[in-house]
Amino acid sequence: MAIDPQQLLNRFTAISRQPATRQLRLLLGLAASIALGIGLVQWAMTPDFTPLYGELPPASAAEIIQSLERSGVSYEVSSQSGIISVPSDVVREMRLKLAGEGLPQGHTSGFDALHQEQQLGVSSFMEKARFDRALEQELSSSIASLDSVKAAR
């Protein structure tokens, strides 16, 4: 199925003899198709981001961002919730690396909060509230780790 140069030239000549509005529509359709193709390629190459940490004090968030920049890992910070997200394929690796660096500092998540030092005279109501908060954080972390979930609180 070889392309005949003469036949190709005849097709271009036939297009050039068309009315200007038809030529313009053809040109606009071609430009839109190219733009759509480029957009699809860029969208397909964009990494899928997953939450790394959220609800951090500003100092801890800044340290984590500096560590991510030193590691050369791309990240996004949500302006509304403050959630720091990284590409899905490096989430576990970065959590381990940051934990090795002692980050985030002062941030207890989930049941880790239950292992903090107890105050003397804490009521059973406060213990229950603390347990509920730890359970909520654990569930939030588990839900946020699902691929189809963008963020969880």
- Which fold name corresponds to the CATH topology of the largest domain? Alpha-Beta Plaits
Overall shape: elongated
Strand content: 5-15%
* Name given to the CATH architecture of the largest domain: 2-Layer Sandwich
Unreliable spans = none
Write down the Rg.
27 Å
How many structurally independent domains?
Answer: 3
State mean pLDDT (0 to 100 scale): 82
Major sheet description? 3 strands, antiparallel
Strand order of the largest sheet: 1-3-2
How far is it from the N-terminal to the C-terminal residue, by CA?
60 Å
N-to-C series of helices and strands: HHEHEEHH
Number of strands: 3
Number of helices: 5
CATH level 4 superfamily of the largest domain: Hypothetical protein rpa1041
- The CATH class of the largest domain turns out to be Alpha Beta
Helix % is: 40-55%
Structural class: mainly alpha
Please provide a written account of the structure.
The structure is a single chain. With 153 residues, the chain is mainly α. The chain folds into 3 domains: 11-45; 48-106, Hypothetical protein rpa1041 (Alpha-Beta Plaits); 108-153. The chain is 54% helix and 7% strand. It is built from 5 helices and 3 strands. A 3-stranded antiparallel β-sheet has the order 1-3-2, with helices on one face. Strand 2 (76-77) and strand 3 (84-87) form a beta hairpin. The longest helix is centred in the N-terminal third of the chain and has 26 residues, at 20-45. The radius of gyration is 27 Å and the shape is elongated. The N and C termini lie far apart (60 Å). The model has no long low-confidence stretch (mean pLDDT 82).
